RNA polymerase sigma factor
Amino acid sequence: MAAEQLHNEKDLLIRIADGDESAFAELFHFYTARLHLHVTGLVKSAPIAEEIIQETFLRVWMNRDQLPGIEFPRAWIFSIASNICFNHLRQQLRKEKHLRVLASRAEDSQNEIPVLTELKEIRTAIHDAVDHLSGQRRLIWLLYREQGLKQSEIASQLNISVSTVKNTIAQSLDFIRKHMRDKGFWIPVCLLEAIMKISS
């Protein structure tokens, strides 16, 4: 049976409160799969569950100063996720009521996946940062992130070395993080990559 709590959780929370991204990544990876089962069970949609999980960890990070005082971290994290789920379900009920009035537009609207409020500005900042990547750096990033090509495939297509592709991707990620911090967003790498994966 999988452990329900990290053995060093209290220490991790203190480190996260101090801005330690590696500690946050450990917490993030430990709880993601566990939250996925819980959230999917509530909203009955894997894509929406992914959105809610990213929103949950975004709130954990943004409220990290509270972490040292959290007595039961697992319950706290699951409570955040559950509240976001319930808000989503309430919005869906209001939406369905509205759709009954606007029946002719129901099919298109029901197929939309709602973007949670706290992620909208972050995604806008990500896209803005990508737009500011120059020349080949932007091309490599788009081939890797949006078209899903492997680094070796990009190297072959552009007639450059795999190491050049790897270094360019790392430089692009650093640029995106710096651009976002300049915009007021400090997002840990693990969470940023998860958000970009859904956005692409």
